[in-house]
Amino acid sequence: MKNIQHLLFRTFLLVSVIAAASCSEDFLERPPVDSIVDAGFYQTDDQVLASTALLYSKVWFDYNDKASYNLGDFRAGTAFSAYNDRGNVLFNTTGNTPENGSAWRSFFIVVGQSNLAISNINQYAGAGVSPTVKKMAIAEARFMRAVAYRSLVMNWGAVPVIENNLELLSDTSVTRNTPESVWKFLTSEMRQVAEDLPETPLRPGRVTRWSAEGMLARFYLTRAGVESGGSGPRNQTFLDSAKYYSERVITQSGLSLLKNYGDLFLFPYDNNSESLFSLQWVYSPGSWGTQNSTPAYLAYSPDIANGDGWGGDKGATWWMISQYEGIKATATGLQGRTVDQRLKATFMLPGASYPEITQTIPGGEQRLVYPFNGTDNNFVAIKKYLTGKAKDVGGLSASQNYGNDTYMMRLAEMYLVYAEAVLGNNASTNDATALKYFNLVHMRAGLPIFEGPLTFDVIFKERLVEFAMEGMAWYDLVSLHYYNAAKAYSILNSQDRGLFFAAPDHFPNPTSWTFTKTSWATTERTIDANSGNFLLPIPSAELSQAPNLQKPAVDYYAK
């Protein structure tokens, strides 16, 4: 925000929110001269809560902007860009790939600002601040820091754990910490956070005990495989913990699934009954960093946007389309239709109608009907998170400036975490509760009841179609890689990420589609995922400034 001056400094040591893109290089070496707000600000409950508000938006901006889908979906193979961001699509992410650097920087901005918030609240909170609010605000900051570290350790492996930036001003010995010790720190942190957060939000969109317990379910499900050396089995104690926390959230949080899947992404959907944790973006003319910019890069055309709409070469991969029930392989490609409502809510097929979005057409406007263009190549464009023109959202949007929130965790995930935790190291399960929870997600999408048995492949596929374009698929593959690296590579290397043509049986309002691979696009259809390129390389700029990041990792011991 332009009215708050922040300094950018070395991201792995001291990190602050960027106030302007033109910060000069000498800012990189200086300690912070201020934090999110002035120290004298922490005198009332409202002021303390305001001091942590930017932890829900500004600090995540560089990740949410483009890196979230570049890493979470492009690398995972659920979506692709035909002409841009090719390093991530082709699994050739390097130390100089822009989204690699922006994600690393954003996560350490979250860590740095969370640390500063904790320090400032402890040091400056006045007598007018209630113990309840003080405890909650510190817990919010610890929550954000842990969530950021989860992304750091899963993308880059060994990373330095920093709990107090100010202690590092003269410390040149900081090195990376082992993934096992980072995960131990994360679960320990989140357990304490769960104790300190309230069961109901003090302000709309603020995290609660159930947000933290949901993260614990997610953390423990992943941590169960961390020490498996890439070839299993998973730790049963941690699987049991994932089951325990997911069931608590399901049965005690008071949250519920929305009846219709598509409603999750229809304006205004913010902070609905299914949201456990969302980034809180605000349409804010004249400011930068607190708004949601991602729709600008995903919308397939300016025809449905606000002077942006630069996603014309982005869409579902061939592999992703094949995951939807009813889309069948044929001798020449794929063909069919699906009753799974998640396809239409996530990707646009030619002829599909979206009455909530205005489309500019020659001579006027209409309710959006996704066009049918091309002769041998087109795109199954991205729909999820697109809310249309300003007129479609009460005037609350402009170019690169949208107010709709970004889900970081939904209740649906808890149902699938429970099912996978019950499955555990078994080949299959017919556990009645696991099937019940799985089917609540599965049938909400319009699909018939799944009779069982549940297997890893069944649950993994369900997660793919449920959370596609929510930045989740890559982390599901990393979780799998911890205990079954060979299967993670096999999934990735079997994907087709190349060009294809989607043709409706009639236009508009088709009843089925035929998909044919573009005959002349024979290269760059597959990738070679392996132990040498699975994790992201630490950004080159960070290595040049912090050479200790190249040293062997050591275990981290919380202070």
UniProtKB/TrEMBL annotation:
<dbReference type="InterPro" id="IPR033985">
    <property type="entry name" value="SusD-like_N"/>
</dbReference>
<protein>
    <submittedName>
        <fullName>RagB/SusD family nutrient uptake outer membrane protein</fullName>
    </submittedName>
</protein>
<feature type="domain" description="RagB/SusD">
    <location>
        <begin position="291"/>
        <end position="551"/>
    </location>
</feature>
<dbReference type="GO" id="GO:0009279">
    <property type="term" value="C:cell outer membrane"/>
</dbReference>
<dbReference type="Pfam" id="PF07980">
    <property type="entry name" value="SusD_RagB"/>
</dbReference>
<comment type="similarity">
    <text>Belongs to the SusD family.</text>
</comment>
<keyword id="KW-0732">Signal</keyword>
<dbReference type="InterPro" id="IPR012944">
    <property type="entry name" value="SusD_RagB_dom"/>
</dbReference>
<dbReference type="InterPro" id="IPR011990">
    <property type="entry name" value="TPR-like_helical_dom_sf"/>
</dbReference>
<keyword id="KW-0472">Membrane</keyword>
<feature type="signal peptide">
    <location>
        <begin position="1"/>
        <end position="21"/>
    </location>
</feature>
<keyword id="KW-0998">Cell outer membrane</keyword>
<feature type="domain" description="SusD-like N-terminal">
    <location>
        <begin position="98"/>
        <end position="221"/>
    </location>
</feature>
<dbReference type="Pfam" id="PF14322">
    <property type="entry name" value="SusD-like_3"/>
</dbReference>
